[in-house]
Amino acid sequence: MDVVGAILVENGKILCAQRGEGKALAHMWEFPGGKIEDGETPQEALIRELKEELRIEVDVQSEKFETTSYQYDFGLVNLTTFICMLKKGTPQLSEHSELKWLKPVELNVLKWAPADLPAVEKLIKENVSL
Prior knowledge:
The chain is of the alpha+beta class and about 130 residues long. About 20% of the residues lie in helices and about 40% in strands.
């Protein structure tokens, strides 16, 4: 399954989203995003997913930030993350149970979904600040 995640940056902080009750990986944290539909580029999928899930519009960088494959019990997930900038709106809760804005160095306080961890570690190591 090919999915995309947004490393949404604003004022030097990154948006972290907690997965809701009753979903796979419930209560774990992730970068918001979702599945890439047929005929979509990863960037188009991210723009669509963030509009649906968080009711926001974003600019997505063309270069991918990190790509990870992780074998969960429900299947293989290929996650590509992109740095995004908020263009319009304020993130709203619909799919997630909680949202937090954290500095890169604070990210490791959360319990992240395994596929998201390589991007988290890269953000911390490089102390990405935009």
